């Protein structure tokens, strides 16, 4: 029985080791995982795997969506009031995200750019927000520039999300070949439902229907194993796919 338990710990550590390699985490995690199979796996799960999982992202989105439904403008009002009362860099960043979530992409882009002119000039989270806002309001070259900055500074920072955003921004900029290469690279690296779905959406918009059709079977195969909760988490993406 103890041998069986040890085997399970090592198997879990092996699964997380695969995640380390596939997502390009720091290689010292391999040493931690195999030196302390049980404890190392627990630490890795909470420190790396869970924060980057779609489960946690989905839970955060669900809570945020519920709050917006009950009072859509609350966060924007509170962020604006906080910044007017105490115009700190942190309150300015909060305001930028509130503007973006409220759909005021152009205002958000300006606020994010102001954040980058201060103490958050090298902050990758602010760069990501600036990229999202600029892409949403059509300033695609600025979005690409921010995403390229992130890629140079830390290729592992929110790697999958950043890869998708960059491919979308390149497509919006009319750089078709670059966008196609960026989507293909992201699919090879992450092979996730989100990447494949966004690749299909872009391919259709770019007139690459044959490419979109070739990507669809694997997408449908993945969906066969979904439950109602998983489908609900991906409802917005499925709507954009027309599925």
From TrEMBL:
Keywords for this protein: Membrane, Transmembrane, Transmembrane helix
Name of the protein described by the UniProt record: Tetratricopeptide repeat protein
Top-level lineage group: Bacteria
Alphabetical list of InterPro entries matching this protein: TPR-like_helical_dom_sf (IPR011990), UCP030959_TPR_rpt-cont (IPR014562)
Keyword Membrane appears in the UniProt entry: yes
Residue ranges of the TM segments: 27-50
